[in-house]
């Protein structure tokens, strides 16, 4: 039976994802709830706000929310980038999020996008393995902040 290039790539991806799942399960996954409403991504060195804000339609209200946010005595929270949001969704897709239950993860959130600026968008993943996604713009969105620990 002839194996196509696409079939070979799919098999390699299945093996890679399986190994990744075994590694993350053995190590407890990269997401860890550290209390105070914070989830630590141990691989990326990011702290995520577990809860979300109310929905905002104005960037100035988003900035005020971010400037007032104090979780775990940290006040240097910021909006995530598109890539950071995608990576969080990818980790949860592969590992699950048992330790960090993010409410309404698939809703529309404010983020910083290289092309569009700071906007409320919904990330629609088509094929995470290829990195295919759509940003669906809206006029309102929740805020879930992130901070760097490195």
Please give the share of residues in helix.
25-40%
Query: What's the rounded overall pLDDT mean?
Result: 81
The total count of strands amounts to: 7
Could you give the order of the helices and strands? HEEEHHEEEE
Radius of gyration based on Cα positions: 17 Å
Low-confidence regions: 14-27
Biggest sheet overview: 4 strands, antiparallel
Taking the alpha carbons of the first and last residues, their distance comes to: 50 Å
Strand content: 25-35%
Helix count, DSSP H or I runs of 4 or more residues:
3
Number of domains: 1
Secondary-structure-derived class: alpha+beta
Can you walk through the features of this model?
The chain has about 150 residues and is of the alpha+beta class. The chain has one domain. The chain is about 30% helix and about 25% strand. The chain has helices at about 5-25, 60-70, 80-95, and strands at about 30-35, 40, 45-50, 110-115, 115-125, 130-135, 145-150. The protein has a four-stranded antiparallel β-sheet, with no helix packed on it. The longest helix is centred in the first third of the chain and has 22 residues, at about 5-25. It is globular. The N and C termini lie far apart (about 50 Å).
Task: Name some characteristics of this structure.
Lcl C-terminal domain-containing protein, single chain, 3 helices, Lcl_C, alpha+beta
Q: What's a quick, concise take on this entry?
A:
It is built from 3 helices and 7 strands; from the N terminus they run αβββααββββ. It has helices at residues 5-26, 59-68, 82-95; strands spanning 31-35, 38-41, 46-49, 109-113, 117-127, 132-137, 146-148. A hairpin with a 4-residue loop joins β5 (117-127) and β6.
């Amino acid at each position: 039976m002839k194996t196509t290039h696409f079939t070979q790539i799919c098999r390699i991806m299945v093996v890679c994802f399986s190994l990744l799942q075994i590694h993350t399960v053995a190590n407890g996954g990269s997401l860890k709830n550290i209390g105070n409403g914070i989830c630590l991504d141990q691989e990326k060195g990011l702290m995520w706000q577990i809860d979300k804000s109310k929905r905002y339609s104005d960037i100035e209200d988003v900035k005020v929310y971010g400037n007032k946010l104090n979780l775990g005595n940290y006040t240097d929270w910021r909006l995530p980038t598109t890539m950071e949001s995608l990576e969080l969704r990818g980790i949860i897709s592969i590992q699950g999020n048992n330790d960090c239950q993010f409410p309404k993860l698939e809703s529309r959130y404010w983020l910083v996008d290289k092309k569009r600026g700071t906007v409320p968008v919904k990330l629609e993943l088509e094929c995470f393995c290829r990195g295919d996604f759509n940003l669906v713009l809206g006029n309102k969105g929740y805020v879930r902040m992130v901070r760097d620990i490195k």
